[in-house]
Design a protein that fits this description.
CATH architecture: 2-Layer Sandwich
Order of helices and strands: HEEHEEEH
Protein name: Dynein regulation protein LC7
GO molecular function, one term: guanyl-nucleotide exchange factor activity
Distance between the termini: 14 Å
InterPro entries: LAMTOR2-like (IPR037587), Roadblock/LAMTOR2_dom (IPR004942)
Mean pLDDT: 90
Shape: globular
Oligomer: single chain
Structural class: alpha+beta
Pfam family, one: Robl_LC7
CATH topology: Beta-Lactamase
Helix content: 40-55%
Organism: Desulfosarcina widdelii
Low-confidence stretches: none
Radius of gyration: 14 Å
Number of strands: 5
Length: 134
């Protein structure tokens, strides 16, 4: 499906991600489409990542993991999480077309983060659905 997001929707997405996720102490939140195109990119200003390479790799990683799920008879895996020594990354699929990538340190609880992601996904779906009805 094709989506055209206007500036009001993009501002709403940025506000929801800032309010619900960045305030938790997350280093970076990136909303991408499944082709790896960056839609919203927020960071704490301290750490700089190569966002475009990260987005492309995240989309590819998610695609590969989805293929593995299919091979073993699962529709998809609901949690994609990679734990590092000091940084962690969480991938959350939103509808069929978007992926939310969250990068955070060990000081952020994964359980609490996932709860907040579930809340923000509801807001994101409402904002994105506006582009379908336009």
């Amino acid at each position: 499906m094709s989506y055209i997001l206007d500036q009001e929707q993009l501002d709403g997405l940025e506000e929801a991600l800032t309010t619900d996720l960045m305030t938790l102490g997350i280093q970076s939140v990136i909303l991408i489409d499944m082709a790896g195109n960056v839609i919203v990119n927020l960071d704490d200003g301290k750490v700089r990542h190569d966002v475009y390479s990260l987005a492309a790799l995240a989309a590819g990683n998610f695609g590969a993991v989805s293929a593995m799920a299919s091979i073993i008879g699962e529709e998809e895996f609901s949690l994609l999480f990679h734990k590092g020594k000091s940084e962690n990354i969480n991938f959350t699929k939103i509808m069929d077309d978007f992926l939310l990538v969250s990068i955070f340190g060990n000081d952020v609880s994964l359980g609490y983060l996932r709860l907040k992601i579930d809340e923000v996904i509801k807001k994101i779906k409402v904002l994105i659905d506006k582009s379908r009805s336009s």
